Amino acid sequence: MGHKSLPHTLDLKMFTKKGEYYCGRIPLSTMKRLSNFLANDNGFVQVSLFCGYDLTEFAFVKIEIETQVQFICQRCLQLFTMPIKSKSYLSPTRHDNEAKDLPDSYEPVMIQDNCIGVKDMVEDELILNIPSIPKHKQLDCKVLLEDENEKTADMHRKRPFAQLKKHFKGNDV
């Protein structure tokens, strides 16, 4: 099984029983939907695809992606780099009914004219792997958050309504 360069589209008619392996790089700058989430679109995503049929005759695409992307931390508003590494198993479907019949180990990917756009498939996988609120790891962030235990201890030390207690002594409240 030889390695082939990434095609622009995967044609389902070309899937073989022995499987096909593709690898290559795609510039992040070509992924317009993804770039809306990033601080910049510099760099590439390394992609590996394996296409074939499983033992139950389901066509599948094993997609592995790896890249480094930059976000603005939503805690300190500073630039930070986050690695993304993912592996997914997709199965091409033409409509929702086919997707319902897929084994649990596969995610559906909708196709048109027996083809899957490779760049769009990779972009979808990247978008699914980015955090909804990008931020540094807490230890790396310039904004230090108070430890939860300290907050709880402070709440017990500072009892703002403790003085009201003496006004209600003897009254059943």
Characteristics:
single chain; 173 residues; alpha/beta; 6-stranded mixed β-sheet; two-stranded antiparallel ribbon; 4 helices; 8 strands
Spatial order of strands in the largest sheet: 1-3-4-5-6-7
Tell me, briefly, the overall form. Answer: elongated
Number of domains: 1
Intertermini distance:
80 Å
Walkthrough of the structure:
With 173 residues, the protein is α/β, with parallel strands linked by helices. It has one domain. The chain contains 4 helices and 8 strands; from the N terminus they run βββαβββαββαα. The protein has helices at residues 32-35, 96-100, 118-128, 148-157; strands at 3-5, 9-11, 20-27, 44-53, 59-72, 79-93, 107-110, 115-117. The protein has a 6-stranded mixed sheet. Strand 6 (79-93), helix 2 (96-100) and strand 7 form a beta-alpha-beta unit. The radius of gyration is 25 Å and the shape is elongated.
SSE topology sketch:
Elements: E1 3-5, E2 9-11, E3 20-27, H1 32-35, E4 44-53, E5 59-72, E6 79-93, H2 96-100, E7 107-110, E8 115-117, H3 118-128, H4 148-157
